[in-house]
């Protein structure tokens, strides 16, 4: 029985080299392959998507990295935290009369003579990190990883059996690595890698003992090398899933004078040790949204009848968590559905930050902890800031460029789109802010009002747009963070809420992730009704400004979406007006 032509999981470079050889044999000039594919990527897309092979590709995690063999196909999910630049490398070279390629590799398959005919290509470098505030429920379970590991072992054993039976089997990349002539190709240098035997790693156990990574229990960062993609496809703080080749952690530097860039550029990777920052050569990538982190992501149309039942159950749970405060729970639901859906100059349209006041320290220990736990169970990316004078005076909120290391040093406010940030202001006592504290207050205010964070590049500053839901818990109205909505918290009980099943939690997560993405519009007749009400409200209370009127429109939109409706109805608009009346009544 003849096996598959390519082993995409255990030997993906076999497909790369084979398709390159085929393209060269057809008479194509290797220079024409700079910045484009020669036929390898369609094969991987067919395997991953048409043949559902993506489910067999292991995810790079703190657990799996101890078992994964170098030069196999893996997936990595993370946020683009930094863009170190581009890397020049020997993409193609002539070995005697035969053209070879180093694409998707850190080491050369064969030695490259100084007189060899070579083609210098370029690839993009992305430094990716686990998504800040990633909730545990989004991660691959131990059971799922175990299944993938067993599948991988079975596939590897079958592959070895086929290789032993066929004398014509292609040489694996692990065997190439064993050659003392293997050469590492990086920007500005050729450097040798020490020979090591990976053929002995036939089981997961033996792979674990020699993984070579010094990462610990934390989720690893990853240096992703991207090929043939427009730079506009990816930007800072985007979340992506990358599928590609995991390279060896045992790469070593070489001091040989073989600078391919002739000394005009520095090594952009010198501050990313390969045994601490895994390298992944990317074949295929896709941008991820909140729904992609749902464990069970049903392709169900969010029809109003279905959505209404889920909404009612979630609202009951939020009300119980918040001490049977029905008004606060309604505002909390609208807050959790908010997102920036448009921008008008500096105005971020669609945001609905929420400040829950009357939160004393005793209330935080009960309701604050319960609410934080619930949000972590509902939302994929949540983060909490305990606001104190000491925290403000010492923390780095904004990312800063370090030109000594040529790295963007992250800050607390470098968050992915769709993140939820809880600011606990109940711990804020009287004190004096230093210059750092004053600057941090300004950064938090800009995030709240403008939905943007100022990045410090030393010689200049750049405003980076974001989309972060902000919830402030405070005893009185926050003077640091002027929220869109201020709601006095009035609990009437402190009983523990009922336990929630995993199935119900999954339904609530699907609801929050799905309905906030629905389109929305206001019919012409309804728009006239809304305008009349807003004019009347302005005449009744002259303190209402444009931002208040914009907030009411946002609340109307969110109220409709909460029911799965894509157009504002009179019924939902009346609900918004009543909710606003109850809120203002509490403020008196």
- Give me the secondary-structure category: alpha/beta
CA-CA gap between termini: 81 Å
Residue-averaged pLDDT, rounded? 84
Counting DSSP H or I runs of 4 or more residues, the number of helices is 14
Radius of gyration: 28 Å
Beta-strand residue percentage: 15-25%
Shape: elongated
Query: Which spans of ≥5 residues are poorly predicted at pLDDT below 50?
Result: 148-157, 162-210, 252-265
User: What is the total domain count?
Assistant: 3
Strand order of the largest sheet: 1-4-7-9-8
InterPro entries: MCM_complex-bd (IPR019140)
Region (Disordered): 154-213
Protein name: Mini-chromosome maintenance complex-binding protein
Pfam families: MCM_bind
Please tell me about this protein's structure:
With 588 residues, this protein is α/β, with parallel strands linked by helices. It folds into 3 domains: 12-249 and 277-288, no CATH class; 304-516, Rossmann fold (3-Layer(aba) Sandwich); 518-588. Helix content is 33%, strand content 20%. It contains 14 helices and 20 strands. It has helices spanning 12-25, 40-50, 142-165, 173-177, 204-209, 304-321, 326-337, 361-378, 389-394, 435-450, 502-515, 524-540, 546-562, 570-587; strands at 73-95, 98-101, 107-108, 118-129, 183-186, 189-192, 222-226, 239-246, 279-287, 342-344, 347-349, 354-357, 382-386, 400-402, 407-409, 419-424, 452-456, 461-465, 468-473, 485-488. Strands 1-4-7-9-8 form a 5-stranded mixed β-barrel. β1 (73-95) and β2 (98-101) form a beta hairpin. α6 (304-321) packs across α7. The longest helix has 24 residues, at 142-165. The chain starts with 11 loop residues before the first helix and ends with a helix. Residues 148-157, 162-210 and 252-265 have low confidence and may be disordered.
């Amino acid at each position: 029985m003849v096996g598959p032509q390519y082993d995409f999981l255990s030997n993906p470079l076999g497909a790369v080299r084979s398709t390159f050889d085929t393209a060269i044999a057809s008479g194509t000039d290797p220079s024409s392959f700079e910045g484009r594919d020669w036929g390898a990527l369609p094969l991987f897309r067919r395997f991953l998507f048409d043949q559902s092979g993506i489910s067999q590709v292991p995810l790079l995690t703190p657990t799996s990295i101890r078992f994964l063999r170098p030069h196999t196909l893996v997936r990595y999910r993370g946020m683009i935290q930094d863009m170190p630049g581009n890397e020049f490398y020997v993409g193609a070279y002539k070995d005697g009369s035969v053209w070879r390629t180093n694409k998707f590799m850190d080491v050369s398959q064969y030695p490259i003579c100084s007189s060899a005919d070579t083609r210098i290509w370029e690839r993009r470098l992305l430094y990716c990190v686990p998504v800040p505030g990633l909730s545990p429920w989004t991660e691959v379970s131990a059971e799922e990883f175990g299944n993938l590991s067993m599948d991988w072992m079975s596939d590897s054993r079958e592959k070895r059996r086929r290789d032993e039976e066929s004398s014509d089997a292609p040489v694996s990349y692990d065997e190439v690595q064993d050659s003392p002539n293997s050469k590492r190709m990086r920007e500005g240098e050729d450097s040798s890698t020490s020979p090591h035997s990976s053929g002995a790693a036939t089981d997961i156990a033996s792979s674990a003992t020699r993984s070579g990574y010094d990462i610990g229990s934390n989720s690893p960062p990853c240096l992703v090398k991207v090929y043939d993609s427009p730079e506009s496809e990816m930007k800072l703080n985007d979340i992506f899933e990358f599928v590609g080749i995991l390279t060896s952690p045992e790469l070593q530097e070489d001091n040989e004078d073989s600078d391919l860039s002739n000394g005009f550029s520095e090594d952009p990777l010198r501050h990313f040790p390969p045994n601490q920052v895994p390298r992944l050569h990317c074949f295929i990538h896709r941008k991820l949204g909140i729904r992609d982190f749902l464990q069970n992501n049903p392709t169900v149309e969010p029809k109003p009848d279905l959505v209404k039942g889920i909404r009612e159950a979630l609202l009951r749970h939020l009300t119980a968590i918040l001490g049977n405060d029905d008004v606060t729970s309604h505002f909390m639901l609208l807050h959790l559905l908010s997102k920036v859906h448009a921008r008008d100059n500096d105005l971020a349209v669609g945001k609905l930050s929420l400040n829950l006041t009357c939160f004393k320290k005793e209330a935080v220990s009960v309701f604050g902890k319960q609410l934080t736990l619930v949000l972590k169970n509902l939302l994929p990316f949540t983060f909490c800031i305990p606001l104190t004078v000491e925290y403000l005076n010492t923390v780095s909120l904004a990312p800063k460029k370090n030109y000594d290391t040529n790295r963007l040093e992250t800050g607390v406010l470098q968050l992915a789109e769709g993140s939820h940030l809880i600011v606990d202001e109940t711990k804020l006592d009287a004190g004096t802010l230093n210059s750092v504290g004053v600057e941090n207050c300004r950064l938090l205010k800009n995030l709240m009002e403008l939905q943007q964070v100022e990045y410090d590049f030393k010689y200049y500053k750049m405003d980076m747009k974001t989309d972060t839901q902000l919830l402030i818990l405070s005893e009185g109205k926050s003077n640091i963070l002027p929220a869109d909505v201020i709601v006095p918290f009035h609990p009437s009980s402190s009983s523990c809420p009922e336990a929630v099943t995993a199935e119900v939690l999954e339904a609530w997560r699907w609801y929050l992730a799905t309905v906030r993405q629905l389109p929305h519009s206001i019919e012409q007749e309804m728009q006239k009704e809304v305008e009349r009400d807003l004019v009347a409200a302005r005449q009744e209370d002259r303190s209402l400004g444009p931002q208040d009127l914009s907030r009411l429109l946002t609340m109307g939109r969110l109220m409709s979406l909460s029911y799965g409706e894509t157009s504002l109805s009179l019924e939902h608009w009346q609900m918004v007006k009543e909710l606003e009346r109850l809120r203002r009544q509490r403020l008196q």
